[in-house]
Amino acid sequence: MQLYGYQLMDLPIIDSADLFLVKAGDQIINSLFTFDRQGKQLALRPEFTASAANYFAKTQGSPVVRWQFAGSVFEDKSHELSAEFEQLGIGAELIGLGGSLAEAEIIAMSASGLNKIGIRNVRITIGHTGLIREIIQQFHLDIRTQRFLLHHVPAFNDPDKGAEWILKQFDSQLSSVENIPLNIDRVDTYVNSSSSDSLMTMGGRTQADIVRRMKLKQQRFADRNNVVAAVELLGKWCQVSGESLSTFARLSGLVEGNDNAAQLLHEWQDAVALLEAHGTALPTLMIKPDLARSWEYYTGIVFELHSDGLHLGGGGRYDELARLVGSKINTPSVGFAYYGNRLMEALKDVPYEFEPIITMNYDEKDLLGAITWANSLRTRGLSVQLLPHSELYAAGKFTIKLENAIIAQFQTNKYSLDQIDLLINDLKQAYK
Amino acid sequence: MIKPLTLALPSKGAIAEPTINFLRDCGLKIEKPNQRQYTGVIPAIPSVSVLFQRVTDVLYKVADGTAQVGITGYDVVRENPHSNLVVVHKELGFGHCSLVVAVPQTWVDVDGMADLLDVVLDFREHKQRNIRIATKYPLLARQFLHNHGIHHFTLVKAEGAIEAAPTLGYADFIIDLTQTGTTLRENHLKILNDGVIIESQACLIGNREVLKQNPEFLNTLRILIEYIDAAQQGRGFFQLIANIQGKTAEEVAQKVAANPITRGLQGPTIAPIYADNSTSEVGNHWFTVTIIVANANLLPAMEHIRSIGGSQTIVSPVRYIFLEKSPIFQQLMEVL
After folding, report:
1. What's the sign of the alpha-carbon dihedral A255, A260, A266, A269?
2. What are the CA-CA distances from residue A328 to residues A57, A321, B97 (Å)?
3. pTM for the full predicted model
4. What's the ipTM?
5. Contact residues, chain B, for A79 at CB < 8 Å
């Protein structure tokens, strides 16, 4: 990430719980590690993005920032009696830069990062939450119904659910008008007759609040045809997936007449084209319009990274977050995160090249000589630890034994200080 | 000398007295040397010592090993999960209550959790604040609300009469325990259709590690469980003893067993009565029939016994039924 200009940032581990709740998805909220101090609800960070957006909103720095993060993130699984509260989180955020360039950069960088550490068969799936929002908005539904449809997008391709099931859920959860008069004009009279005046403000709701909501419920009931139409279109939308060229062609047929949606689709295609320029092989890409990442969070392109069945990370565009955590305006933002524990799992069979710590054994009388040897090796970039010669410490594969202040022995070879480069060469051969 | 197993019991609260009564009915009467002291003994099992604590502290004392077992509410266990705790017996059969979501009755537009989600969003949109919920159960409340898609709320910690919170204005609705719902109704609250978070009753808990490592404790606990288990098994049955005439014991047994209700747990026990045969019909003899019937079947069983000539029937409650092995103890061993 350094190569793309991403600066390593450190952000607070503990912050206000509201910061993480403001736009988080169900998964994060359900396992947010919260606690109270002095009347404030605090939380251990479950991820970096909200903290990054908050820091960006509160500091008047550069209009465009590229930040990378690595550190602990926390989940409270105490209800599962799980001991795994802490995980390694690694991610990056590009804040202040809109357009396809930013999206393509984040996706390409996250995928190439996996390749670089030795993970093979990396697959990228790309969806677009902003486009689904736009499609739903054209049906002029109330906010709650829109949210309901967004949250049910994964159900379209669930063999046990599907469009009919979604409509049934809508009817039972949102548009049930049981106990509510169907005639909108009668709602006020009904509320008056159902409650006594003295209790009208009980529970923080006034009579007007209750009337407003009942009318909303009635409106939903009346608008059911629009919901049916939205479900039908979303069903078609979610059926399309595959490689980029043919998928975009089919999707474009579904947004005819909706200029905003067509524009977003065009931008999505641009981002995918830029990915190719970044060197991302097209066969590794899959366009998946029903890709469901947290609807609360993301506003545009979303993506996931997989390898051999493991979901290793993902991210997307979240332009509203900075405003919600204190910025005056929406700020274009894209980011991604790797899931540390799954990375470890994916890496467990990957051959790992590392530079070992070299142990230098010495007798007490040769301590000064040992320090000279060790420092000479360190100035040449090797890690060296000094240990007095003792039967307690078994000689390891990378142990150099100091015969005296001048002669060092590695394996069966002996070296004087002026042969140090030869020693280093032999050490490197050994750990290759 | 056997190390005494410490049994923590609630000292006050809704299940304190029922716990003492429950143990007494199981044959485990508690004796307190001094009413002001927080300890006691169970003469039936001398290797048990009793420690009285507040209902939540029972759980803490068992979790930290001060007591090895305890009786508390299942709601308390669920609200305070602890890896050291094991629920030995989940259903002791008393202290029934439910943790529920209750909203003001004036919210005539709210019947279920889906409605409540609407209202929560309405609070944020039109009142620019989170909805406030009074509860003593923050963990269970949070989980339940999150599972229903409700994420933005403020929990108001409260003790005592939570039902009054919406009327007093410091919360908008409540999540609290209820037994019959009467107190909620009296405070103008209603339970949501799908607003039952957990059904609770008194339960027996233990410290997993301590029990695993101490066979003496485990053995004392087995005796304690045997009493409870056998008493609970027995509680559902009556023993019925009737006198019936018949030619042979087999003939009487066939008549009794003809009805599944009076067949007993294994089959009827028939014993001859060595009586003056002047009271029996010619060729017949008197027999005593002993059977065990489920409580709910007592009257149908009586009718059948009468219909086959039974008389002078004695019915008495069954105090204990000891099965081959205590099922509750078997389950515990599997979990440990």
Report:
1. negative
2. 8, 11, 49
3. 0.73
4. 0.71
5. 81, 139, 143
